[in-house]
Automatic annotation (TrEMBL):
<dbReference type="InterPro" id="IPR039760">
    <property type="entry name" value="MOFRL_protein"/>
</dbReference>
<dbReference type="Pfam" id="PF13660">
    <property type="entry name" value="DUF4147"/>
</dbReference>
<dbReference type="InterPro" id="IPR025286">
    <property type="entry name" value="MOFRL_assoc_dom"/>
</dbReference>
<dbReference type="InterPro" id="IPR037035">
    <property type="entry name" value="GK-like_C_sf"/>
</dbReference>
<dbReference type="InterPro" id="IPR038614">
    <property type="entry name" value="GK_N_sf"/>
</dbReference>
<dbReference type="Pfam" id="PF05161">
    <property type="entry name" value="MOFRL"/>
</dbReference>
<feature type="domain" description="MOFRL-associated">
    <location>
        <begin position="23"/>
        <end position="259"/>
    </location>
</feature>
<dbReference type="GO" id="GO:0005737">
    <property type="term" value="C:cytoplasm"/>
</dbReference>
<feature type="domain" description="MOFRL">
    <location>
        <begin position="344"/>
        <end position="448"/>
    </location>
</feature>
<dbReference type="GO" id="GO:0008887">
    <property type="term" value="F:glycerate kinase activity"/>
</dbReference>
<protein>
    <submittedName>
        <fullName>DUF4147 domain-containing protein</fullName>
    </submittedName>
</protein>
<dbReference type="InterPro" id="IPR007835">
    <property type="entry name" value="MOFRL"/>
</dbReference>
Length: 461
């Protein structure tokens, strides 16, 4: 299948064989997780029988003849592409639907409405309200196909009563800057929403709901993907307040009042596992970081490199994660363990950045690469991207460097690089070194993807 990913200035970035291998691993991983491929890999239609085969767990078959309307609802970075692929597969079996995305595509039967990411917007609220209205119209004989992908938490805002969009935005921005994990972040978002934390399942009840999830979270927990609109939620209003306190976040007063009312039992809690809203809900993860890693691994093997997949669930501070992975690359180069060079060290997951008060521009993948470049002491390449094509709030997906990028005689002075990292200002430093990887919106989101390519060598500085 022809690649859907095009990297700007690919030839300049791929200036050596190891750099080429790193970039091609990233491209292959993103391609493999594109909904146009994923939907046709995970879903099959035989007559009127639709079978869903998730990345893990058993398949499930649904007889479309037993349902009234078939409706597609959801949101996320890749939701428009999932909707288009479902139309290609199911055709006029789909009656209608609504999805919200920041990467719209043309569809015939499903309304693809615009939203914004990573901070929610007014148009996202409009689209989410349309999703909720259509879900409420679904009857007991209807089938709802729920398309939920990475980015859905921001793209599907539905502020709880008495909470303004501006209050939700301020809370989101503070959480983004705090370094909170995605689980902690979502514990707050779920309790400020009319859709998240299983509330979409409540609204769609009593319809049969089949969730088709493209995971951008470590561990592929459906309750975390897009803040779990179709999944039981074990977190509470009290948990949400604890997160704000733990990270010293002063949220707008209406947000705090809502969470306090909930903690006191005066707001309806998100539904847990035994809630009847989930009696006819199945959620299937049809693509994840593992999907991307396996495709990247195949490229490494094809090019004659030993692949080492560390984990699909790397998390924590980006620059600290880089130190660990660079140390593994150095061990490979120096001792041949845990892989014999030449080798490619691959990982996925989601790292975070705790922003300085006077911070600059960048994102977790850019900080991973810049931090890795400062540590790198063997012939190797460090590349990392966000698979949706947008790292942080920049126009870059990530970056690529080698052992000569940050050096006294290289394009980026080590002192300037350290100062940039301290100020969370990786973007201009990497841009000056011609190290940024730009690819635009990719149509998918299975979180971060990293490739460290190690040649045979010894410490060189």
């Amino acid at each position: 299948m022809t690649s859907r990913v095009s990297i700007e200035d690919y030839d300049a970035l791929a200036s050596s064989e190891p750099r080429t291998v790193a970039l091609d691993c990233l491209i292959a991983g993103i391609d493999a997780a594109h909904p146009r491929r994923v939907v046709f890999d995970a879903l099959t239609l035989e007559g009127e029988h639709l079978t869903v085969t998730p990345v893990a767990g058993p398949s499930r078959t649904y007889d479309l003849e037993t349902y009234g309307d078939v409706v597609v609802l959801g949101g996320g970075n890749a939701a428009g592409h999932v909707a288009a692929a479902l139309e290609a597969l199911l055709g006029d079996r789909i009656d209608d639907g609504v999805v919200v995305t920041d990467d719209p595509v043309e569809t015939d039967r499903i309304d693809v409405m615009p939203g914004d990411h990573p901070v929610p917007s007014e148009r996202g609220v409009e689209g989410t309200n349309a999703v909720l209205e259509r879900a409420a119209d679904a009857g007991p004989d209807d089938l709802v196909l729920g398309c939920l992908t990475g980015g859905g938490s921001a793209l599907l805002p539905a502020p709880a009563e008495n909470i303004s969009l501006e209050a939700l935005r301020k809370t989101t921005e503070a959480l983004l800057a705090s370094g909170a994990s995605i689980d902690e972040f979502n514990a707050v978002r779920k309790h400020l929403s009319r859709l998240k934390g299983g509330n979409l399942a409540r609204v769609a009840d009593p319809a049969t709901v089949v969730g088709l999830l493209v995971s951008d979270v470590a561990g592929d927990d459906p309750s975390v993907i897009a803040s779990g609109p179709l999944s039981p939620d074990e977190t509470t209003f009290a948990d949400a307040l604890d997160v704000l306190e733990r990270y010293g976040i002063t949220a707008p007063e209406p947000v705090l009042e809502h969470l306090r009312r909930g903690a006191d039992g005066n707001e309806r809690e998100t539904p847990v596992d035994d809630d009847p809203a989930f009696d006819d809900v199945d959620c299937h993860v049809v693509a994840s970081a593992t999907t991307a890693l396996e495709a990247a691994r195949e490229v490494a093997v094809d090019r004659g490199y030993a692949p080492l997949v560390l984990s699909s669930s790397v998390r924590g501070e980006a620059r600290e994660a880089a130190k660990t992975q660079v140390a593994i690359a150095e061990e490979i180069a120096r001792t041949g363990t845990p892989a014999e060079p030449p080798a490619v060290v691959l990982s996925g997951g989601e790292t975070t950045v705790t922003l300085a008060e006077d911070h600059g521009r960048g994102g977790p993948n850019q900080e991973f690469v810049l931090g890795g470049a400062l540590e790198l002491e063997v012939p190797a390449v460090v590349a990392s991207v966000d698979t949706d094509g947008i790292d942080g709030t920049t126009d870059a997906a990530g970056a690529i460097v080698d052992q000569g990028t940050v050096s006294l005689d290289g394009p980026l002075d080590p002192l300037k690089a350290r100062r940039a990292l301290e100020r969370n200002d990786a973007y201009p430093a990497l841009e000056a070194a011609n190290a940024l990887v730009r690819m635009g919106a990719t149509g998918t989101n299975v979180n971060d993807l990293r490739a460290l390519v190690v040649e045979r060598g010894i410490a060189n500085r």
